[in-house]
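Lab notebook page, bench 4
Experiment: in silico fold of construct C2
Operator: M.H.
Input chain length: 286 residues
Purpose: comparison with the prior construct
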Amino acid sequence: MQKKIERLYKDVEFITSIRPFRNYLNTESLEKTASYIENIFKENCEEVEIQTFEAENKTYKNIIGSFNTSKKERIIVGAHYDVAGDTPGADDNASGVAGLLEISRLIKEMKPSLKYRIDLVAYANEEPPFFATRKMGSYIHAKSLHDKKVPVKVMICLEMIGYFSDKPNSQSFPLPFMKLLYPDKGNFIGVVGKLGQGRITKKIRDIMRENSNIGVYSINAPKIIPGVDFSDHRNYWHFGYNAVMITDTAFYRNPNYHRRTDTIDTLDFEKMYQVINGIFAVLTKL
């Protein structure tokens, strides 16, 4: 376990150390991040694909690592590797990227029996100014699946999975009544789905609960609630796919959200690893 936690730390350390910061303007930094992800995928995955696209006269990349490629129906696990502005982005979203990389290692090492094709996808351009536009890397990827009529069991978005707090009242919520339903300590992980997708959301929550030593809670809520669609899963919803977001709840918990203080020393790597264990189990048991 300790060795695996050290691998996680090393991934986040490398990604957050890249300068200038890996925002949409600094394409050389994004390229360095993409190359790091691609190399680890090549070590572990059966196939690796680079999906390039243009935005504001610059070229960006999605990196896709695949397993069990003979199967038609897929589970997509995705995380964005860009940051908002000049921030190191440890939780947002080096934590999610490190989760992708570790999942690739676990599948190679554990050789689980897989019912579905697994595509691990690292996206560019989740953050502003491209957020909620057709130039998000995840929009490009989701559209490509839709256009090819690729069946997708579910898309699992890893959006900030590393910040936890055991302090009372460290967790806030978009609506006051939610305090009655969820813990006031920010020491759990959330599974967020939209209305009408309760079955898959709860199934993923239950598998994660059974296969990790961390509290796991779920919610299915309308997109008008701030935060429910604030990541790459939104684009899979747009194309009619099931999708959930795995998150530490971002700005409802982490005071470093989109700030220079979003640094590696603020993350809890043991809890982050429990999240990854849970997601790995989902891929093998769903």
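Observations: The longest strand covers residues 58-67. The chain has a mean pLDDT of 98.
Next step: discuss at group meeting.
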